[in-house]
Write a structure and sequence with these properties.
With 172 residues, the protein is of the alpha/beta class. Helices cover 31% and strands 20% of the residues. It has a single domain (5-171), classed as Isochorismatase-like (Rossmann fold, 3-Layer(aba) Sandwich). Strand 4, helix 5 (122-135) and strand 5 (139-148) form a beta-alpha-beta unit.
Length: 172
């Protein structure tokens, strides 16, 4: 197997800011572990961006009705990377309008890569990425200390669920 890819899932203002409805209270604690991992691995940084209203289908319509604060253009500063890790996106970002970043990641990594997942939120975009990637044949390691959930309790629950998928997904 080739060198693993470090994936930093959605380190954006919308998920880091304390005053954001989606801000993770754990975000500040994951910055140093992410930076340490990035120093040793080739790195991909992802961003969640909203789809244009005209392109939303099914449950995404209801989703944006429930979260109108996020119904902004993808270029809105709310979706910018946080300064603490923005420099990790040397080659740009992998953007997706879905929680899970697979298959957008596969376009960069190729099929069945080894992924090291970090980022936010453990209980949304990280778990959605991990499950889809593993289902497609990727080997996934989720670094618990480098992920932040919507709450510490939801973080732990998501880690527990992902641990059920061993050996395809390993929580470390």
């Amino acid at each position: 197997m080739s060198e693993p890819w470090l994936v930093v899932v959605d380190p954006q203002r919308v998920f880091a800011a304390a005053d954001s409805p989606w801000g993770s209270p754990m975000f500040g604690a994951i910055v140093d572990p992410i930076r340490e991992l990035a120093a040793a691995h080739r790195t991909i940084v992802t961003r969640w961006v909203p789809s244009p209203a005209a392109e939303r289908t099914g449950s995404w319509r209801a989703y944006f009705e429930a979260w109108p604060f996020a119904d902004r253009p993808a270029t809105d500063p709310l979706f910018d990377l946080v300064p603490e890790v923005a420099d990790l996106a040397v080659g740009g970002t992998v953007d997706a309008t879905t929680f899970g970043k697979w298959p957008a990641l596969e376009a960069v990594t190729g099929p069945a890569p080894e992924l090291i997942l970090t980022g936010v939120a453990t209980d949304c975009c990280v778990i959605s990425t991990a499950l889809a990637a593993a289902d497609a044949g990727a080997t996934v390691r989720v670094v618990a200390q480098a992920c932040g959930g919507s709450t510490p309790e939801n973080h732990a629950k998501a880690l527990d669920v992902m641990a059920l998928y061993g050996p395809q997904i390993t929580v470390v």
